Amino acid sequence: MRALVVVSFASACLLLLLQLAGASHVVYNYKDLEAEAAAATDQVPPSIVNPLLRTGYHFQPPKNWINDPNAPMYYKGWYHFFYQYNPKGAVWGNIVWAHSVSRDLINWVALEPALRPSIPGDRYGCWSGSATVLPDGGGPVIMYTGVDHPDINYQVQNVAYPKNVSDPLLREWVKPSHNPVIVPEGGINATQFRDPTTAWRGPGPEQWRLLVGSAAGSSPRGVAYVYRSRDFRRWRRVRRPLHSAPTGMWECPDFYPVSKGGAPRAGLETSVPPGPRVKHVLKNSLDLRRYDYYTVGTYHPRAERYVPDDPAGDEHRLRYDYGNFYASKTFYDPAKRRRILWGWANESDTAADDVAKGWAGIQAIPRTVWLDPSGKQLLQWPIEEVEALRAKSVTLKNRVIKAGHHVEVTGIQTAQADVEVSFEVSPSALAGAETLDPALAYDAERLCGVKRADVRGGVGLFGLWVLASANRKERTAVFFRVFKPAAGDKPVVLMCTDPTKSSQNPNLYRPTFAGFVDTDISNGKISLRSLIDRSVVESFGAGGKTCILSRVYPSLAIGKDARLYVFNNGRAHVKVSRLTAWEMKKPVMNGA
Fold it and tell me: Which N-terminal stretch is annotated as signal sequence (predicted)?
């Protein structure tokens, strides 16, 4: 049965854009799109609506559409998570700020929505924003984007306060009458002016600063504007942006300090000033490319300028995740002195599929994020709390996977699993690696598209087939491939997720995702961790140097029929030093 939406070509394009655009805040005719999607739900394959494809331990509400994570924070013993939510359907529209709380970032309880359109400054939308917890018991403040005109998508920034700062659950929020507190003046494009960051304290009487993402010029350039305030009521824009680059619109910016040479996985509070052992990270979500990019650099608070360490950083920028991961937001967790990263993963099926199943969008597993000892990039790892969900396990040790062979991992159900594996290749075998095409040396995604999982390599490809069917007609490959560089001696390591054979269903978006791994593999060793949760695969290469999230929708490898394999499609033998796979229990998830 075909999942094709039978509508006009233009309408079909709009439906696809709706699913891929979410956080871009393009205003669509929600009712028309939902009606067209609903009209095609009778053609959705049965496996798509199988409840066993709904994730179990990734954050999501019981039903409907979600997108950007908003204002995560820790307050009076509770983790708070807000997010963009449509209470009326499974496509974007009618957006409110939904609100959930947790003691451990894994088990979640849903509360009433915190923000709904209710004042002139947000009458046509309560869009993304951030929270700042004030010192000395002042409680949290939310800054968020509102839309105050239905036709021209005019964006302003508003402020909201908890009605009762002594309430640890922060169940009610108040919008003061002096909203909006920031408006797009001085030549700013009012339709591209959104997503205020967490504020930080700096020198001078106007001690609070925050960023608002925007675009400038005809190119256009992505821009992070700096605003200063004494009191979160009166804000003044700094004359020059903190930073800009010719990348297109910057939305969902984030700016925070990281420790250089500090304790592993340690985080810094957002207002920690720059210094010899402190760098800063500037992240932006690129509206044109639909990915989250970041640079590591130096913040100059007196000048309100940020300078990336790598002069080419804006051209070949690093990404948090090289897969389906967008509109991310970090916060500092004072309870465990760490910085935690949230990111949204949209669906890769059709709008009709989502209307039929009644839900769309999940959040990635929260990740601890810190600066790599090299100072060149960030490292990410699933928060330690997720390990509390591990149940029955199975282990392989010192198993050699011959060239062109695979081994099934049996003894547990693997539709929801946490897999950690360490690989070893003989250092002498590295001489047999393929030579990297210089034309693809800076484009990992294109390289993976050319060197897919069924294209045999020299050293690699080796990795995991996850959510695989018994006959392996369905499988999602997560793997490494090693190349000889066109110049230099250091081997180049490519990490890929290839979902092109993940489902028998048609009309799914199944791109290959890939990133280079900046690691020394001269000793032949590299590790991989994959979190598998029915319709999502999150993978972390080389201890979190490269991360890839992919959405997949098996039609055969569902529930107990899902299998897990280790495979080697290279010409050199690979040893699995150790593999441990755990079944994952289901947490409390918003009453689902």
Answer: 1-23
